[in-house]
Every structure is written in structure tokens, then in C-alpha cells.
Amino acid sequence: MQRSHQMILNPYSGHPEDERNILKKNNRESIKEFALLDGVFIVSKEGIVHAAGRYLDVDAKDIGINKGLGGRHVSAAAITRDTVAVAITVSESGGTIRMFMDGKEMAFIECSDRAIRKH
């Protein structure tokens, strides 16, 4: 969370880990709702959401991603280039899911057929 700052009040602040675990089925609806907020989720490798509605503080210089992808994709690639994070984006137009590591897009899932393609 050192490379980000809170844009809105953190909706997960003060809640027990059990209520912030993305792997628990009963938490999925709240995650879907908070995903509509501006900003990113910060999730631990154990699946615990630490925050939502955060802005990434990144230097997007020299990030080479596919043409047509927007700011969230550039930020996702940049944070993974500069840290050990893995970033996942969901495109607003079509719902395509992309995974970034080491500053590069590593995989994507097209919403239409759920076909996973690796780069």
C-alpha cells in the first residue's frame, strides 16, 4: 500500500479478515459492488482485501502495452514492473480480464468465450 493512496473512504477499514476474504462466497456481492468504485483493490496473496478505492502512485514511463488499453492497464503494468505485485484488470468495455506481472501482460480472459490466452 506504500505505492498508493486512498481516493475515498476505505470500505474495508475496520472489518474482520473473514469479511474481507475474496475466497469466501458470501463476500462476493460486496466485492462486486465496491468494484464499481473508482480506484483499485489491494488484496494480499492470502485473498484478504486490505483496501478498495485506492489510486496507484506509479511512473508509467516506458510501459509498452497493447494499443487501445487505458490508464488502468498502464497503471497495472507499471505497479508490477516496480514491485512484486500481480495486477488484474477488468475492462469496462466487454469485461476482458488481464493479468500483469513484471510490467507485462501475462494472460487474459475474454468475457465472450472465457478462453484463456497466455502471452
Percent helix range = 10-25%
Number of strands: 7
**Biggest sheet statistics:** 4 strands, antiparallel
Whole-angstrom Rg: 14 Å
Global structural class: alpha+beta
Number of domains: 2
Q: Can you tell me the residue ranges where pLDDT is under 50 for at least 5 consecutive residues?
A: none
The neighbouring-strand order within the major sheet is 4-5-6-7
Calculate the mean pLDDT score and round it.
Answer: 90
What would the principal axes of the Cα set say about the shape? globular
State the end-to-end CA separation.
28 Å
Strand content: 25-35%
Order of helices and strands: EHEEHEEEE
- Quickly count the helices: 2
Describe this structure in words.
By secondary structure, this protein is α+β, with helices and mostly antiparallel strands. It folds into two domains: 1-57, no CATH class; 75-119, no CATH class. Helices cover 16% and strands 28% of the residues. It is built from two helices and seven strands, in the order βαββαββββ. It has helices spanning 28-34, 71-82; strands at 4-6, 40-43, 49-56, 87-90, 97-101, 104-109, 116-118. It has a four-stranded antiparallel beta sheet, with helices on one face. A hairpin with a 2-residue loop joins β5 (97-101) and β6. The longest helix is centred in the middle third of the chain and has 12 residues, at 71-82. It is globular, with a radius of gyration of 14 Å.
